[in-house]
Amino acid sequence: MKILVINGPNLNNLGKREPGYYGVKTLTDIEDLIQKKAQDLDTLVEFFQSNHEGSIVDCIQTEAQDADGIVINAGALTHYGISLRDALADSRLPFIEVHLSNIHARETFRHHSVVAELAVGQIAGLGYKGYLYALEFLVEQIKESRVA
């Protein structure tokens, strides 16, 4: 099984960017923890991060054909990334939307997600552990759907 782990704008600055919201772990730290969890789940993960919506769309369009699901933290694209939304829909892959901070307890413009209605679920406010929970749940759900 292969899961894409996609991170959007500014997540490359984790560890130094507003640690009160996003924690002190870097994206590399989080990817290392995800990789360890993936090994425990006998799952391959492929990581991608970009500050550009088109690059993320290109990644989804290229990589989705060989993947089973997606864990995505779209960053600010969550709130306005219609082409990202369309790429996720076109992929037909199950995905979990992850946010390090609780977007529903922040500025009003962060409360709306253009991808949430397509997602299997949304995890917000659990810090880096949200990625691990998302991966575990998604892998379990994909395995269950293959048995059904």
Name the CATH architecture: 3-Layer(aba) Sandwich
Please tell me how large the radius of gyration is. 14 Å
Number of domains: 1
**Oligomeric nature of the chains:** single chain
Strand content: 15-25%
Uncertain residue ranges: none
User: Briefly, what CATH class?
Assistant: Alpha Beta
* The CATH superfamily title: Dehydroquinase, class II
- Overall geometry: globular
- Total strands: 5
- Give, in spatial order, the strands making up the sheet with the most strands: 2-1-3-4-5
Number of helices: 5
What does this structure look like?
This protein is α/β, with parallel strands linked by helices and 148 residues long. It is built from 5 helices and 5 strands; from the N terminus they run E-H-H-E-H-E-H-E-E-H. It has a 5-stranded parallel beta sheet with strand order 2-1-3-4-5, with helices on both faces. The protein is globular, with a radius of gyration of 14 Å. The two termini are 17 Å apart. The model has no long low-confidence stretch (mean pLDDT 94).
What's the helix and strand layout?
Elements: E1 2-7, H1 19-22, H2 27-40, E2 44-49, H3 53-63, E3 69-73, H4 82-91, E4 95-99, E5 121-124, H5 129-147
Parallel strand pairs: 1-2, 1-3, 3-4, 4-5
Helix pairs in contact: 2-5, 3-4
